[in-house]
Amino acid sequence: MRMGKVKKTSQPIHHQPPIRPSSLPKPKMPRRSNLLTVLSLLVLGLLGAVMAERSAGCGKANTIRSQQYTITINGKQRQYIMKIPDRYDNNFAHKLIFTWHQLGGSAQKIVNGENINQGGALPYYGLNALANNTAIFVVPNGLNAGWANQGGEDVTFFDELVKRVEADLCVETTQRFSTGFSYGGAMSYAVACARPTMIRAIAVISGSQLSGCNGGNSPVAFYGQHGTSDSVLNVSGGRQLRDRFVRNNGCTPVNPEPQPNGQNSVKTVYQGCREGYPVTWVIHRGDHNPSQTDAGSSTPFAPRNTWEFFSQFS
Fold first, then answer.
1. Which 3-state string (H, E, C) describes 18-78?
2. Where does the record place the region Disordered (predicted)?
3. What would the mean pLDDT of 283-307 be, rounded to a whole number?
């Protein structure tokens, strides 16, 4: 194929002189409001990076399964049961929820659940049924079926469990929670007192100060519920736990003291609390019972209330 001739131009080629920096137009400085917006976004991004942190176990092939394990703490054999989601995803950062049993109970009874019509609790205090594969549960077993926490040994147990679980499983380390009934509630309170930077929120069901409170001067989000007819741990003990965190969290005390509405529970959300450290209190007319229901209902309200309280921090 013959190529067409390229037409020559008679126009001379002009070489432009080099542009000196002094001849360039000066860039426009962003307006003050725009600059503040950019700085604010940078600060928020940094805060988000600090506040949200995934555990070392994220992305790893897990070795921990849903079963019982034994470790040695202060020379004593300690047992605990793990429950990981049926569809566990090692790239998803899960909530980590500790569930502590009552006096005379056991980790296995928390896993299996007990008859709620005879003062028992639903499996995992009803939380696993609501978690939809977003939470990992740790169910410790107490010495002598309780949580005396002598010399802080049960808090040390908690420390070791957090370390072991998060080294192997994918956890959002700002989403650690603790709950329990009676002695289990007391142990959750002891953890909040001693490890306020390690626990995001606790839910104390019919608890009292039985496991000690080493520290106890820092804010921790607090949910509590108690019955005015509690024949095992008087309601005054539950109010004492609540009032510590009303004070620590900077909330405005409520006066007069909240009371049940007939056979129905009354939920009080305290006002004026420090951002991120709410306090919720539920009072009912019942006895020492983790599965109290409102009039006309057969469903315990503790699981729903607890899950809603924990979920607000997601």
1. CCCHHHCCCCCCCCHHHHHHHHHHHHHHHHHHHHCCECCCCCCCCCCCCCEEEEEECCEEE
2. 1-28
3. 98
